[in-house]
Amino acid sequence: MAHRAARWRHAVSRVLVIVNPAAGRGRAQRLWPQAARALKSAGVEFDTATTRSAREAIALAERGAGAYRAVIAAGGDGTVHEVVNGLLRASAGGETAALGVLPLGSGDDFAKMVPPEAPVGGRPQGWLSAVAKIARGETRRFDAGRLESDTLARGSVHYFANGMDVGFGAQGAAHAAAMPKWLKGQAAYIGALARTLVDYPQLRLRMSVDDAPPEAIETTMTAVMNGRCFGSSFWVCPEACVDDGLLDLMCAEALSRIAILGLVPRIMRGSHTTHPRVRMLHGKHVVFESDTPMVVEADGELPFPPARRVAVSVLPGVLNVIV
């Protein structure tokens, strides 16, 4: 269900910009002074909070949600992920304060979701375009994802903006975090892909979608997406829609290395949806269960320790995103 764009209405005129200087392996630190000048030139009144450690943006966004007109994530997808978690904690999983994104990271997959959307295989418009959107002040309601696992504290939940997966992509996210700092952008993702091919998981899971009974599957990777792209260049669910109240799934069967190498270029083009060993599904609620712990990736991050049970659900229209 699509949501129309709306104007901010808030008693406070200032916005909070949460800057992650480590995003994009230092790209955000280099670009932020230019972006700050552009915001000032556009007439945006803002305060800045700079993160110094992982997960700090969650607390900053949670505190800023009620005190500012909007909270802006200046960084990459990891920064957006933390800010979204802070905003949704502040709203207890309901409709959030306005969220803006200055895409200063490596992949910037969430920015590809913000209209006008990047075409499959393309890149988002960039931070200059984002400055103009922040100054204009229109929002649109996006869906978000909710995660529960047996390794989170009882009653705790985690959220994602773009997507999550188990299997090959999650292992690749772990390897990407360990790539040398001099590898940047797509080169870092390709390096992580190469390393993952050496030792990748073949998961035996029980998966249930909505009210369907659990089915046993063996998978190289299964992704649950709100957006269309992850890992900078992998258009996993190219038909996904950010405000339809549904999650899109891609489930790839257990594949050999040769088969994976053949599938990867198709995912980068978004043409894998007709592959005979790939299933594309939709749903509002997905449960994964495994006898052995699964590595879980969400928005390029590893949000909690490997889990044996993960429940994923859609939160329709809860993110107020500046478009």
The value of Rg in angstroms is 19 Å
Instruction: Please work out how many helical segments DSSP would assign.
Output: 7
- Overall mean pLDDT stands at 91
> Roughly what percent helix?
25-40%
Order of helices and strands: EEHEHEHEHEEEHHEEEHEEEE
Distance between the termini: 17 Å
| Principal-axes shape call | globular
Structural class: alpha+beta
Q: Which segments are poorly predicted (pLDDT under 50) over 5 or more consecutive residues?
A: none
- Assembly state (oligomeric): single chain
How many distinct beta strands? 15
Largest sheet: 15 strands, mixed
Give the DSSP E fraction (strand runs of 2 or more residues).
25-35%
What is this entry, summarized?
With 323 residues, this protein is α+β, with helices and mostly antiparallel strands. The chain contains seven helices and 15 strands.
Folded structure, characterized:
The structure is a single chain. The chain has a 15-stranded mixed β-sheet that branches. Strand 4, helix 3 and strand 5 form a beta-alpha-beta unit. It is globular. The protein is built from 7 helices and 15 strands. It is an alpha+beta fold and 323 residues long. The model has no long low-confidence stretch (mean pLDDT 91).
Topology:
Blueprint lengths: L5 E2 L7 E5 L7 H15 L4 E5 L5 H9 L5 E6 L1 H14 L7 E6 L23 H10 L1 E12 L8 E3 L2 E5 H10 L7 H14 L4 E7 L5 E11 L21 E7 L3 H13 L8 E6 L1 E10 L1 E3 L8 E16 L1
Parallel strand pairs: 2-3, 2-4, 4-5, 5-15
Antiparallel strand pairs: 1-6, 6-7, 6-15, 8-10, 8-14, 9-10, 9-13, 10-11, 11-12, 13-15
Helix pairs in contact: 2-3, 5-6
